[in-house]
């Protein structure tokens, strides 16, 4: 005959052998260590050429330029396409939690309509001479350099960026500029590219220009 099972409560499992307790402790360790691991493994793209000193105009005619962007990370977009400009503005909701450390800057060619803009999304234009000097004297050459150093995500090395302002305005780019005014990287202005630009900007905003 089988002997009856002993009565009474089941023996307690030691805490160090309880899988739920172990999972909880492991989760706490990972969450605590993750920021330190990211700081050691994630790196922003190296600094590229400086944008230099420049000044254009806000929609109300007020001056705005590199001086007002010192100490901030900014995402730059040159485009003649209103739809692409509106999509660029959607980036704002992904960076607002950083308290103004990241600014969107839309460059609108003189004579073209643009959005009203805000403190976090700056819309700039200006005289044709000043606008072209910034676009073709700073950003377009920096983009060509980025193609050669593979800091232009989504573009092939032999991509043709054109030689005129009209051609440059058709190139779908988002430029990431750090707190010191150095162009870090360009990404293609589409879903994946904008996501990568957001990640690079957030990393710079959190860790500074020399992470």
Strand order of the largest sheet: 5-4-3-7-8-6
Contiguous low-pLDDT stretches (5 residues minimum) are: 30-42
Helix content: 25-40%
Alpha-beta content class: alpha/beta
State the separation between the terminal residues, measured CA to CA.
74 Å
Got a strand count?
A: 8
Radius of gyration, CA atoms, in whole angstroms: 25 Å
Protein architecture, described:
The chain has a six-stranded mixed sheet with strand order 5-4-3-7-8-6, with helices on both faces. It has a two-stranded antiparallel ribbon with strand order 1-2. The longest helix is centred in the N-terminal third of the chain and has 23 residues. Strand 3, helix 2 and strand 4 form a beta-alpha-beta unit. With 211 residues, it is α/β, with parallel strands linked by helices. The chain is globular. It folds into two domains: 30 residues; 153 residues, 3-Layer(aba) Sandwich (Glutaredoxin).
Quick recap:
The protein has 211 residues and is of the alpha/beta class. The chain has helices at residues 19-41, 82-89, 128-148, 165-168, 191-207; strands at 55-57, 63-65, 73-78, 102-107, 121-124, 152-153, 173-177, 183-188. The chain has a six-stranded mixed sheet with strand order 5-4-3-7-8-6, with helices on both faces. A two-stranded antiparallel ribbon has the order 1-2.
